[in-house]
Amino acid sequence: MNPPASLSPSDAAPAHASNPGRGVYTRLPPSRLERLAQRLRWPLTGAAGLASLYLVFLMHAAGQTWLALGALGFFVLVFYIYISQAAFALRYLFPGIAGMLIFIAFPLIYTAQIGFTNYSSAHLLSQERVREYLLDQHEAVPGQTQAFTLHADGPEFRLVLRAEDGSPSWVSPALALKTTRQELSVDMLPAQSAQQPLTAPLQQALPLRELIEHREALMQLKLRLPGAAQELRYLGLREFGAISRHWQAKEDGSLLRLADQTRFSPNLQTGYFESASGEVQQPGFKVVVGWRNYTRMVMDAEFRGPFLAIFSWTVLFSALTVICATAIGMLLAVLLNWDDLKFRGTYRTLLFLPYAVPGFISILVFKGLFNQNFGEINAILDALLGIKPAWFADPLLAKVMLLIVNVWLGYPYIMILCAGLLKSIPADLYEASAIAGAGPLTNFFKITAPLVIKPLAPLLVSAFAFNFNNFVLIALLTDGRPDFLSTKIPAGQTDILVSYTYRIAFKDSGSDFGLAAAISTLIFFLVAAMSLINLRLMRKANS
């Protein structure tokens, strides 16, 4: 048989001529799309490389040197892997590894790094930024301000300072405001003599809307008037004037407050510019404090008390939730697996509803049901027993309420898992047990539970880790309240570690991000350690 006309004889040759039993294979010519991809490969690679370098340049220009170096290394690695044939095997592993490093490892390392600093709402900026902020503080000198207008002069502009009666007093040379990016000193000219070089009279003053467009350039101008001791600086959209600065930089790195000649030096322990008398100047700057945030959890008695209580409650809350939800879910799964039970489909649907409804909706519904004065639960208890428990005010009742709601939300998940696992248990075991005269309880504890709990164990570990960080339930139901009394940092009786960290970082006590990051890092290692211990114990039990 002759090869097709579009193929050369070499292309049509069998790939396994020595083994005709394996069939004949041919190499088809590249399609039009493949040829186009081959032609565009290197132009697109070059464009991607230029775009990557430009992004690195923007990071460096923004002052993020370390981030720029990290991005540069990442882009070099990407291009090496996807261009070089030597790293061909890594092309399939790299996306997963890169995603893990970027979305898991990097946030963890960054959070841990913040835990070694005093980063907070009072220490947001670097020392250089705080220095620039203080040195930029100024006020206008009374009696030395002048109104101004801006006029177009071809592609350039002229700035006119006006007297109190509105007449022009000083006019600037032609200014290229559209290209002004750095400070520019401008020698102003008297208005009358300045009119002579103009080829045409000054045009109408720019309206406010167009004046705002040139605001950044106007802020860079320093106007010098003949015989004036001070330069005039931009004070707003209506006037220029002389300014009096509040601070002066010294060669030793300190700042001098000109109003009272007090010198403030940077304190790298507290993160403030401080005077010799101990006066601190806001805002503070970020500094490395070492293990201070971690030792505070152990050494500070007023912090250690609520922290240990919250940690104990977090472990207890997670463990009790998993135990109760597992017991209820497994029991319901066994009951629904009973062949003689009528309306099993209806029961299964009703018991599955808590899992089908979004969790935050169920939590808000329960918040209304447990309301002390108007909730349905207290209305029923009052009618039957004559009591109205203070679910949100009493610490013990609030914790019981949290467990009830969390078990309600969690048991359907366990029930579904157990229902599937029950199908894998051989029916012969139950038949042999029936012959031996065993009852339902014996079957459950001797056959069902041991065979279900082993494959269920890893999922129970993940459920424990989930409840250890179940922030949504705490935030929506109790918000951590009722609070501990007489504590430095507001902490709630029903707070778990993650909600306690959130309150420290974003709600109370001045947003102490460094301390919150230290607690978050501790939570990570605690959950990881407990998960590893649970998995190892279960592995030994299964072996």
Give an overview of the whole structure:
With 543 residues, the chain is an alpha+beta fold. It has 3 domains: 33-114, Methane Monooxygenase Hydroxylase, Chain G, domain 1, CATH 1.20.58; 138-245, D-maltodextrin-binding protein, MBP (Periplasmic binding protein-like II, Beta Barrel); 298-542, Orthogonal Bundle (MetI-like fold). Helix content is 54%, strand content 12%. The strands form 2 sheets. An 8-stranded mixed β-sheet has the order 4-6-7-8-1-2-3-5. A 5-stranded antiparallel β-sheet has the order 9-10-11-12-13, covered by helices on one side. It starts with 8 loop residues before the first helix and ends with a helix.
Number of domains: 3
Q: Note poorly predicted spans.
A: 1-21, 194-199
**Gyration radius over CA:** 37 Å
CATH superfamily of the largest domain: MetI-like
Instruction: Find the CATH topology of the largest domain.
Output: MetI-like fold
Largest sheet: 8 strands, mixed
Question: Count of DSSP E strands?
Answer: 13
Short description:
54% of the residues lie in helices and 12% in strands.
Helix and strand layout, with pairings?
Blueprint: H1 9-12, H2 32-61, H3 65-83, H4 90-114, H5 127-135, E1 138-153, E2 156-162, E3 168-171, E4 184-187, E5 189-190, H6 191-194, H7 208-213, H8 215-218, E6 221-224, E7 232-234, E8 239-245, E9 247-249, E10 255-257, E11 262-267, E12 272-274, E13 280-281, H9 292-299, H10 301-336, H11 344-356, H12 359-369, H13 376-385, H14 395-422, H15 427-435, H16 440-468, H17 471-477, H18 497-507, H19 513-542
Parallel strand pairs: 4-6
Antiparallel strand pairs: 1-2, 1-8, 2-3, 3-5, 6-7, 7-8, 9-10, 10-11, 11-12, 12-13
